[in-house]
Design goal:
Layout (H helix, E strand, L loop, with lengths): L2 H4 L6 E2 L2 E2 H6 L12 H4 L2 H11 L17 H11 L8 H7 L1 E3 L9 E6 L2 E10 L2 E4 L8 E4 L5 E5 L2
Antiparallel strand pairs: 1-2, 3-8, 4-5, 4-8, 5-6, 6-7
Helix pairs in contact: 4-5
Length: 157
């Protein structure tokens, strides 16, 4: 999609040159609230898209794709497809990420579920209090609301 396609009105102007003039000379137009294609294609965004594309894939303990997943297998697979390397288990992944507060969380961050200091589950934050994850045996990869406050957030760098 080009910047021109995202412009909401033909009347939008950037300074004194019209959007069409800028596009004609190969420039770009910044529209507030719209991410550029380059900005939208971060590894975290790519990993989130990969996880979402696995919706309905069956859970299998110890599996890391491409057809079956456990929780950390889904995050490992998703970030690998986005060009980032993660260790295998949820706890190892927590130790490898840059920890961020709930206030600072962003779509594409990892969400770690814990009991005390024990990390036992991981998913990818999708925004609006939801995660993509592979929940448990007998279930499938799905989008679900975060059900507890016992979570930590980590950003893959």
């Amino acid at each position: 999609m080009t910047a021109l396609n995202r412009v909401p009105s033909l009347m939008v102007r950037a300074g004194t040159a019209s959007v069409f003039t800028i596009a004609a000379v190969g420039g770009s137009v910044v529209v507030p609230g719209v991410a550029s294609d380059a900005a939208a294609a971060t590894p975290a965004t790519k990993a989130l898209q990969v996880a979402a594309s696995k919706k309905g894939s069956p859970y299998k303990w110890g599996a890391s794709g491409p057809k079956r997943f456990d929780c950390s297998g889904l995050t490992l697979y998703s970030f690998k497809k986005a060009g980032k390397k993660l260790p295998r288990t949820a706890a190892q992944q927590y130790n490898k990420t840059h920890h961020v507060s709930a206030k600072s969380r962003k779509a594409g961050d990892l969400v770690f579920f814990h009991s005390g200091s024990n990390v036992y589950h991981v998913g990818i934050y999708a925004g609006k209090g939801k995660i993509w994850h592979a929940p448990k045996t007998g279930d499938v990869v799905r989008l679900q609301k975060i059900w507890t406050k016992s979570v930590w957030y980590g950003r893959v760098s």
